[in-house]
Every structure is written in C-alpha cells, then in structure tokens.
Amino acid sequence: MRSKAGKVGLDQASVPEGVVVYAIGDIHGRADLLEQKLARIMADPVTGSQKKTVIYLGDLVDRGLKSRQVIDLILTHEETHEIDQVWLMGNHEEFMVRFLEDPENSMEWLTYGGAETLLSYNISVAAGAFNAQKAIKAAEDLQVALQEAGHDRFFARFKDSFELGDYLFVHAGIDPEKPIAGQGPEILRWIREPFLSFSGTLAKVVVHGHTVTEEPTVRNHRIGLDTGAYYSGQLTCLRLEGRDYRFL
C-alpha cells in the first residue's frame, strides 16, 4: 500500500502478478559470470502462466575482457528463450557511444576500460601511445565490428530507465528531490549523492548498479546490485515476484 504522499517503501513494493523479474548488476565484460547467472535464471522454477523478465542494469561493457561476448550472450539468450529482456544504459555504454561519435575528444574511454572492449572486438590498442588519428581509426573499426556482429541493433535498444509495478530500474540512481519524469540521462547514468545517503521513501523503489559494494545494498528506497563483478567474481541478480524479493 502506498502512503498518502504517493510514496512506497521496500516493505510495500511489488511487481505485477504473472511476472518474475531478474535484475542483473554491472557485468563489465564478465561473460563467464553472466552465462552462469542466466543458466540459474532459466532453471529457476515458475508457474506455467508466469513470464520471466531479465533487466540488465547497465555497464555491460569495459574493464573485463569479454564485452563482445557479453552482448553476444544476451542476444543469443533472447533468440533461444521465451523471455523478455531490457537493457539499461550505464555510464560505460555512454563512454563507448561518445567514442564512436567523437573519438578525438573521447580517448579517455580507453583508460576506463574501453581498451579491453576494443580488444574483445579484435581491435588492437596501445592506450599510452594513442593519438587522434589512431582514435578515429579505432572508432571506424569498432563501428564496422558492431555492424558485422549485429551489435548495432543492441545499442539501438538501450533505455535509461524501466518501470514495473512499484519498482524503477536505472543504472546509477535518481535525484530524490526531483520527480521521476524529471530525471535526465546525466542523473540516471551517473548520480551517487544525494541518492545513496537518502533515507526516506520515493515514488518507486529504485533498483540500481553503478556504486560498488561487497554485498548487495538493501535500503527502504533502493536496492544496489553492483558487487564489482569484473574483479570480485560476484555478479548479483535480484529476483522479484509479487511482494517478495531475494538474491539468486
């Protein structure tokens, strides 16, 4: 039940009947961990009338060595299973898109994990010796590689947020002082404070990644799922069914 102010806490939040949601935290190129998690999701028992929905919270790419393989896995999973999938844009996908659009002014992406992403597409880089000419060539090669792999259609489907029942799924969080409709991409993909330290309730319970913690973070207004998979080996998945939640 919502409060008179139209706000809801985790103890009251629910997803619609007939839907089981699996929200996956920041993957960062760890295709091995994602493959294991998707296998668990598909093995998770549901009733015949229930529909599984998988939501990826962004930062699928960079840092880990298999960003291309992560995208391949997600697309293949969608083609071979009757499930719904939603992928949200994180700040690292934003970095990647910036590099494709303006490589000369976006070379810092390479130091944030972009070099590993390029290598996953068999594009060799030497970040320390990079210059504008090499950046332009790498961006051109990456664009071709995305098209050949069918990954351009993957990037065309990114969302900044997704609402389902009493939950809002985003990459980083929201500004507690603004309505949901007033949250721009720079907030949804990048924010930390004042979102993380907020202690009240919001119009939706926010499920997010972006900020790394050793264990999933559970608060009345948010659930944080970034457990640093690319270095910790721990990829977190939240399961939502009705008013129940647990980690898979």
From TrEMBL:
Organism per entry: Thalassospira profundimaris
PANTHER family for the chain: METALLOPHOSPHOESTERASE, ZINC-DEPENDENT ENDOPOLYPHOSPHATASE
Domain (Calcineurin-like phosphoesterase) ranges: 21-212
One Gene Ontology cellular component: cytoplasm
Domain of life: Bacteria
GO BP: any one term: RNA decapping
Pfam families listed in its UniProt record: Metallophos (PF00149)
InterPro entries named among the record's database cross-references: Ap4A_hydrolase, Calcineurin-like_PHP, Metallo-depent_PP-like
Matching CDD domains: MPP_PPP_family
Upper lineage: Bacteria, Pseudomonadati, Pseudomonadota, Alphaproteobacteria, Rhodospirillales
Record's protein name: Calcineurin-like phosphoesterase domain-containing protein
GO molecular function, one term: phosphatase activity
